User: What shape does this take?
Amino acid sequence: MKKLQIINGPNLNLLGKREPAVYGNTSFEGYLEVLRDKYPQCEIAYYQSNVEGELIDKIHEVGFSFDGIILNAGAYTHTSIALYDAIKAIETPVVEVHISNVHARETFRHTSVISAACRGVILGFGLNSYELAIIGLIN
Ligand code: DQA
Assistant: This one.
């Protein structure tokens, strides 16, 4: 059984309601059920916070015992050196994911300060970005 932790950052609690043209109409809780059914060989834990320090605490908590972390850091992707340091500090591989293709959006979204600390990056496939990250981590 692979232990995977999905971590969603700021504003991602509003998935399904927030800018549906960019992020879709599905709530993350609904999508999570689909993922859990599709990957019964994985234990998929889920955590969301709008608070940078809480995201760091969760990374520390699971980062020495889980098999993989799938992190959508939201806007902190573009700003948070503290998240970069947290990812560097742990042993568990982290896959950075984004629902949208950030490179096709505003220029301030073109830079990720966390990518260099991550095992891989998947973006632009809608919620399927999370599934692609799972496939990457379990293979
Ligand atoms: C996002 C992209 C970020 O630029 C944005 O701040 C988000 C969501 C995405 O999943 O596409 O909150 O990470």
Summary: DSSP finds five helices and five strands in the chain. The two ends are 13 Å apart (CA to CA). Residues 28-38 form the longest helix (11 residues). The pocket of DQA is lined by residues 11, 72, 74-75, 77, 98-100, 102, 109 (CB under 6 Å).
